């Protein structure tokens, strides 16, 4: 812990600026190498410029650099992580900054899984199906309902996420077992995220084989045989293969993997092996 | 016609910024398409086409790093062509699908190009001119804006006839292959997510989630509720082992905090 001088203390206005930047622009510079890293650095500028006001240049450069590392999470939950990050930046000494990045990166995976499964694949489709059911009857009410359902959830998540993350983050850090509590939050979110992601394999990935065994009327449809033993086995296998390759390549070559799948899929579907 | 095409294309660009920014909902087919109906002066027709596309693409969303078929340009062009051709929903859907697939490829190219921005940022930060970070961030916004503005303008201004000519040049088996691959590629996004989450013991929960969905066919919400309970149980087990390290009072307060967080997560 360092003594925080009045000049370098974060104000509510700084946090609001960070929330505002993160809310509107977090993925504008999204890219396959470091995903949202530039976006989070952009959002953190108001916080960093306050905390490093009047500090030596090496320290200011080091602060900017460490937030340009790989980062990717869910846009609606990023403000929460950034709130905690701001609290940690404020309360750690210059030689403890590794722990800021450790907490930031340990939260991003679990919260990305949570956000994708709960928001992208649950809440948004629910809002969309309500909106669309009115819309196809020519009723504009659905459009308004869909807009309200999405924004009524996202904005509180982003705003209170920032503020709660900062306040809780700070009180967690000053308590004796603060790191342990953050670990537990992260692990809990991880369990939730992994389990729902396991379920999402069946609903988001579609891969079927068109192979038949034998010929004519007695031909056995391989897909229906697979369905009887392990339903969705092909989506499961392809997801595990992607996981294996991503881990093996350390998260690089994602584009190559995607284009590889496209080329193989075009070839295999041309021969009727997959459908 | 030219003016309307430009306004529609600007709208598509703004919807793309919603996709990469605030997530107000205009990145979804219904909200993106309904505005096109207003621009073209046929709001009800636009509403019906956009609603149909929303239903079709309900499950199309990003996971992890995965860029799905671009439902924004699909919905905007589909609604516009549906209204302008006078053929309504059928024409809209027919045009929307290939456009979404083509712009998906374009979006992946932009995501690759934007790597330049983050490398530029490395240099900017080194030199201490931190204000330039802002410019780089907004340069990214420009590339994503153009990635939807340009294809939508070409499609809407040159019209359905041009799209058909272009598509006629692409062999049918390639289009089929592209459609098939667009349904497989979410696996990359899930793989990306899992690679960040698969730590000690996590295979247990991956198997549980898959089993509940594949064999028992429970809805995602039900699995989320069960997963919440498993998260709590796992936390209890882990914490019992570590409880020796901390005093009773401290572990009591920590329990409360974690319970609060889990409640909050469930509300998502």
Keywords:
heterodimer; A: 275 residues; mainly alpha; 2 domains; two-stranded antiparallel sheet; 10 helices; 2 strands; 70% helix; elongated; B: 268 residues; 12 helices; 81% helix; disordered C terminus
Descriptive report:
Chain A has about 280 residues and is an all-alpha fold. Chain A has ten helices and two strands. Chain A has two domains: about 190 residues, no CATH class; about 60 residues, no CATH class. In chain A, strand 1 and strand 2 form a beta hairpin. Chain A is elongated. Chain A starts with 11 loop residues before the first helix and ends in a 5-residue tail after the last helix. Chain B is mainly α and about 270 residues long. Helices cover about 80% and strands about 0% of the residues of chain B. In chain B, helix 4 runs antiparallel to helix 5. The two termini of chain B are about 45 Å apart. The C terminus of chain B is likely disordered. At the A-B interface, helix 1, helix 2, helix 3, helix 5 and helix 6 of A face helix 1, helix 2, helix 3, helix 5 and helix 6 of B.
């Amino acid at each position: 812990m360092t003594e925080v001088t009045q000049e370098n203390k974060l104000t509510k206005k700084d946090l609001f600026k960070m929330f505002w930047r993160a809310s509107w622009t977090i993925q504008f510079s999204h890219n396959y190498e470091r995903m949202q890293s530039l976006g989070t650095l952009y959002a953190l500028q108001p916080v960093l410029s306050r905390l490093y006001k009047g500090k030596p240049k090496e320290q200011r450069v080091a602060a900017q650099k460490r937030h340009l590392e790989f980062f990717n999470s869910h846009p609606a939950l990023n403000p929460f992580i950034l709130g905690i990050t701001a609290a940690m930046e404020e309360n750690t000494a210059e030689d403890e900054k590794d722990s800021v990045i450790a907490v930031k990166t340990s939260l991003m995976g679990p919260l990305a899984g949570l956000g994708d499964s709960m928001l992208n694949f649950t809440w948004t489709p629910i809002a969309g199906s309500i909106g669309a059911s009115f819309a196809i009857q020519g009723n504009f009410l659905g459009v308004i309902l869909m807009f309200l359902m999405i924004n009524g959830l996202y904005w509180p998540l982003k705003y209170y996420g920032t503020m709660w993350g900062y306040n809780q983050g700070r009180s967690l850090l000053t308590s004796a077992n603060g790191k342990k509590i953050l670990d537990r939050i992260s692990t809990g979110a991880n369990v939730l995220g992994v389990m729902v992601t396991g379920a999402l394999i069946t609903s988001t990935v579609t891969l079927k084989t068109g192979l038949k065994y034998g010929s004519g009327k007695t031909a056995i449809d391989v897909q229906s045989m697979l369905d009887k033993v392990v339903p969705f086995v092909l989506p499961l296998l392809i997801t595990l293969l992607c996981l294996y390759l991503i881990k093996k390549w350390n998260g690089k070559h994602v584009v190559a993997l995607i284009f590889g799948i496209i080329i193989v899929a075009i070839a295999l579907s041309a021969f009727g092996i997959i459908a | 016609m030219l003016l309307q095409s430009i306004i529609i294309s600007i709208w598509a660009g703004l919807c793309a910024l919603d996709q990469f920014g605030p997530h107000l909902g205009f990145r979804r087919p219904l909200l993106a398409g309904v505005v096109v109906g207003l621009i073209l002066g046929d709001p009800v027709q636009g509403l019906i086409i956009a609603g149909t596309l929303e239903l079709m693409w309900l499950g199309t969303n990003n996971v992890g790093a995965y860029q799905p078929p671009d439902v924004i340009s699909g919905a905007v062009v589909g609604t516009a062509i549906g209204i302008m051709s006078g053929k309504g929903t059928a024409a809209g859907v027919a045009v929307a699908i290939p456009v979404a697939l083509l712009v998906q490829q374009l979006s992946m190219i932009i995501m690759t190009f934007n790597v330049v921005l983050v490398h530029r940022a490395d240099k900017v930060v080194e030199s201490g001119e931190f204000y330039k970070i802002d410019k780089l961030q907004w340069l990214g916004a420009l590339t994503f804006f153009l990635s939807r503005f340009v294809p939508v303008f070409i499609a809407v201004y040159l019209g359905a006839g041009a799209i058909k000519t272009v598509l006629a040049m692409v062999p049918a088996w390639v289009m089929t292959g592209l459609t098939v691959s667009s349904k497989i590629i979410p696996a990359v996004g899930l793989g990306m997510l899992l690679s960040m989450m698969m730590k000690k013991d996590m295979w247990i929960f991956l198997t549980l989630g898959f089993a509940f969905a594949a064999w028992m066919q429970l809805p995602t919400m039900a699995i989320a509720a069960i997963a919440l309970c498993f998260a709590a149980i796992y936390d209890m087990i882990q914490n019992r082992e570590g409880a020796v390290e901390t005093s009773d009072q401290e572990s009591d307060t920590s329990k409360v905090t974690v319970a609060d967080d889990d409640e909050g997560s469930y509300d998502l």
